[in-house]
User: Fold these one by one.
Assistant:
Number 1:
Amino acid sequence: MSEQINRIEQLLIQFAQQTNERLDQIDKRFDQVDMRLDQMDKRFDQVDTRLDQIQIQLERMEDSQNDDVISILRHTHDKVSHLNQNAIV
């Protein structure tokens, strides 16, 4: 009976060790996945930052184009007004 108990105890210890080894391997895999996810987060942050910069540049370009169009319209209006005044005289 004592031998059976010792054998069961050894099997339980062996099973616990195998389980711990498997859990350690799973922990390593989770750490690797965590590291990859952190790297992806950093890349997404960089992409977000770049997109924000591009959006700011586009807004500046749009503002500049709007200013140019307004200037062209004013200039055209002044020319047309001048031509109308000359045509009346």
Number 2:
Amino acid sequence: GGKRIFHAAMVNTPPGVHDVYDESALLTPLARLICQHLDVPRWVFKLDDETGGRGCAHFDTASLACFEGLLRQHDAAPDDWEDEQLQARLQAVLYEELA
């Protein structure tokens, strides 16, 4: 799809993933994206086989019970946020809530 072409051409695109074919394959990258981009309040999903606005959905991060805690933790220690072990723990918490 278009995302791969833009990426190959090094065109700036919003954060996201592509080539996701089922719900279980979506949750792990979504948890990673939310952790990496706490400033994105809404994630949009688009199914490639739909047209006319069908196949679009959105998800607001504020609806997650753990999201305020993530923001507080980030604000308390922003320099630690990129730590791989911390990210793995936080993404696991997000995954459980998303599932």
